[in-house]
Amino acid sequence: MNALRRKTKIRGCPMRPLDCRVMCEICDKPRNRGNHTKCSAERQRRAQENAS
């Protein structure tokens, strides 16, 4: 049973929660539901504009 309760470690430290948004900032829907390919393309386009 100990194997089920072990905490995942990276380089000897416990993993921290992922730093991702739960809601999509483009369509305001949950990112784990539905298809976000259009949102991803829009996000990449905006990032490219900001980088230029």
Characterization of the model:
The N and C termini lie far apart (53 Å). Helix content is 37%, strand content 8%. The longest helix is centred in the last third of the chain and has 15 residues, at 37-51. It has a domain at 18-52. A hairpin with a 2-residue loop joins strand 1 and strand 2 (13-14). The protein has 52 residues and is mainly α.
Radius of gyration in whole Å, from Cα?
17 Å
**In which range does the helix fraction lie?**
25-40%
* Amount of beta strand: 5-15%
What is the straight-line distance between the termini?
53 Å
Strand order of the largest sheet: 1-2
Give the total of beta strands.
Answer: 2
Element layout with pairings:
Layout: H1 2-5, E1 9-10, E2 13-14, H2 37-51
Annotation keywords:
52 residues; elongated; two-stranded antiparallel ribbon; mainly alpha
Summary?
The protein is mainly alpha-helical and 52 residues long. It contains 2 helices and 2 strands; from the N terminus they run αββα. It has a domain at 18-52.
